Amino acid sequence: MSASTPLVRHATDNHVSIITLNRPETLNAIAPDQRERLIQLFSEASADPAVRAVVLTGTGRGFCAGADLRGGASAAGERVAGDVARTLRLGAQRLIAAVLDCEKPVIAAVNGTAAGLGAHLAFACDLVLAAESARFIEVFVRRGLVPDGGGAYLLPRLIGPQRAKELMFFGDALTAPDAERLGLVNRVVPDADLDKTARDWATRLATGPTRALALTKQLVNASLDSDRATAFAAEATAQEINMTTADAREGVTSFVERRGPEFRGR
User: Fold this and answer.
1) CA spacing 20 to 30 A to 241: which of 14, 26, 28, 163?
2) Euclidean distance between CA atoms 165 and 154, whole angstroms
């Protein structure tokens, strides 16, 4: 790949931000500068009123093979206690948080292998579409490592602790249909249909009530760490805030007038 080729491709089309990992020769393993670009794009999507949904995918045969470990800590000489934890906090964990905290709905279109951090990047998205050829691998145990990049936080919340431990203890490759059966994937589609399906879903989201979707995402994510009283209070507050939006007024008005709503993301 030439020096002028972007490591992350980005385009906005019909209010959809399309983010594409573009290191196919490494199965889109994430290098530090690529990670920083992703974090920037998710932050910009949150702040840009013209963006109302996000699609994350990859080029080539892999969605993302995880963090690019070449030239990492093992090659940098003597390790100082605290270096690894600091690297994770400032690196992989920031990336996963950027997806979870993005104020727009994020769709992962998993086009191939998603391993390690790459799998967690997909699982952090709000909706996950997988091509039939996709595989998900908790690869850490194969390297003698602890799962990082938010894995031990995400997986138990998605599929329960026993299933999460099974995946993390054995590190076996999980096919797309098996991932769908476990609840890690919303839908499996033929490889040739992945891009179209992702764009169709994103277009539907981009024509929805954007602020209501953002508040809904926030409520659902926060509920996993909340007691009932806290969750109910957050729900009431979110609805109070949402009722000040133009889209909420349009939704109620269109119902009264017996017509379809025309949401504008405001």
Assistant:
1) 14
2) 12
For tokens 């000489």, the residue is: 77
Query: What does the block give as tokens for 180?
Result: 């769908």
Distance CA 248, CA 254 (A): 10
Strand-pair category, 135-137 with 173-175: antiparallel
Q: What is the pTM of this model?
A: 0.93
Q: Answer for the pair 194, 20: CB distance below 8 angstroms, yes or no.
A: no
pLDDT in tens, 82-94: 889 999 999 999 9
Residues in the chain: 266
DSSP state of 257: T
Helices (H) and strands (E) in the chain, counts: 11, 10
Residues 212-249: tens digit of each pLDDT: 999 999 999 999 999 999 999 999 999 999 999 999 99
- In angstroms, the CA 193 to CA 35 distance is 27
Give the Cα-Cα-Cα angle 128, 151, 126 (nearest 5 degrees).
25
Sequence-ordered alpha helix ranges (H) in the chain = 32-47, 83-90, 92-101, 117-123, 151-159, 161-170, 176-182, 194-206, 210-223, 228-242, 246-256
| Pairwise CA distance, residues 174 & 1, whole Å | 30
How many Cβ atoms from other residues are within 10 Å of residue 23's Cβ? 23
